Amino acid sequence: MSRFERYLTVWVALCIVVGVALGHLVPRAFQTIGAAEVAKVNLPVAVLIWLMIIPMLMKVDFAAMRQVGSHWRGISVTLFINWAVKPFSMAALAALFIGGIFRAYLPAAEINSYIAGLIILAAAPCTAMVFVWSNLCRGEPNFTLSQVAVNDAIMVVAFAPIVGLLLGLSAITVPWQTLLISVGLYIVVPVILAQLFRSVLMRGGEARLNQALGRIGPVSLTALLATLVLLFGFQGEQIVRQPLIIAILAVPILIQVYLNSGLAYLLNRLSGEAHCVAGPSALIGASNFFELAVAAAISLFGFSSGAALATVVGVLIEVPVMLSVVAIVNASKGWYERGAAVQRVAARAQRPDAGRSGAG
Q1: Is the pLDDT of residue 12 over 80?
Q2: Comparison of pLDDT for 353 and 319, the residue scoring more
Q3: Rounded CA gap, 219 and 233, in Å?
Q4: How far apart are CA 193 and CA 140, in angstroms?
Q5: Considering the chain, what is the average pLDDT of its residues?
Q6: Residue ranges of the alpha helices (H) in 101-205?
Q7: pTM for the complete prediction?
Q8: How far apart, in whole angstroms, are the C-alpha atoms of residue 167 and residue 91?
Q9: Which segment of 236-245, 256-265, 347-356 scores lowest on mean pLDDT?
Q10: 37 bridge partner residues
């Protein structure tokens, strides 16, 4: 992890301060940016989001999906967590904490919007930062790459239906046309462009690709930070009035991260999967593609919405929370491997031919 990435939380906090200050000092500038729309797509933000997402997706090699069978247990666990558990658990946690426990402390008009933002955040599995987390827990790189490739392929077709379903269940009006435009604009088109750029760079070999990714990596994070300044410029007045909003929104996100990472880690242990696969599986199962979440929230609900703010809180706590999960995974390696070894022995003993070995 680069120093820039390691201190992402610090940069996000600075963006909050700068955005809120600029929102009060030059409100007309933010109004002008907010009005620069075509078919409900804000053009300045669309450019920034493409600069965020495309470099991230260039790291993904979809040919890696051929390796899925090598680590089928870890792949199965992560897919189960990402698509059958995480979005639905977040919807439940958002309803419990935002729609229930903390409802009285939040602006009534934004309750549904906050819930929507949390759902959008959980519906997109992490794409780029997972490579950093996997490296920190000494994860199997081929597993990480193939898992990310599978998740991205699924995301193209599953993101809109899952978001639409959960928003509908939460009694939130689903702007289907805008949702589908967002999927096309911020998933399908970036995936195609990223793979085209990747194939061109790969003509010069792996070294050329890595060199290019190293150069454009800071561009992606810089675009993210610029987008956050704009968001907080619009959200500044609301945050100044109720600074506890960010802390309240962080509660379901934190619970969701530890719940899903812990469940993925335990299921991998019960299946007898190797620790070098279980680590990144738990991390992929817990983290989010927050660049896409921010883009979708802005498109669906607008710059100044509670949904946009909720996704930004995910960015704010991403690095320290995921580093804590990495630390837990590394510290528990001995405990994990003892349990996984027992499961592997038990699985071998249950095979139909186990009792006939050596007979004859």
Answers
A1: no
A2: 319
A3: 21
A4: 27
A5: 82
A6: 111-122, 129-136, 141-169, 176-183, 189-202
A7: 0.77
A8: 9
A9: 347-356
A10: 42
Neighbours of 319 (CB within 10 A): 21
Rounded distance, CA 294 to CA 12, Å? 14
Buried b (16+ CB within 10 A) or exposed e, 12-48: beebbeebbebbeeeeeebeebbeeeeeebbeebbeb
Q: In the predicted model, is pLDDT for residue 356 greater than 60?
A: no
Apex CA 282: angle with CA 217 and CA 222, to 5°? 20
SS (H, E, C) 297-316: HHHHHCCCCHHHHHHHHHHH
What band does 360 get if pLDDT is binned at 50, 70 and 90?
very low
Amino acid sitting at position 236: G
Strand, helix or coil for residue 212: helix
Nearest by Cα to 86 from 224, 261, 271, 220: 261
pLDDT at 27: 78
H-only helix segments in 170-305: 176-183, 189-202, 206-241, 244-271, 275-286, 290-301
Q: Is there a contact between 313 and 250 (Cβ–Cβ < 8 Å)?
A: yes
User: 297 pLDDT exceeds 70?
Assistant: yes
DSSP state of 170: T
Question: Which is nearest to 126 in space by CA: 56, 75, 222, 182?
Answer: 56
**What's the pLDDT band for 353 if we cut at 50, 70, 90?**
low
Tokens of 307: 């949904």
Give the angle subtended at the CA of 320 by the CAs of 20 and 64, to the nearest 5°.
Answer: 110
Compute how many other C-beta atoms are within 10 angstroms of the C-beta atom of residue 233. Answer: 27
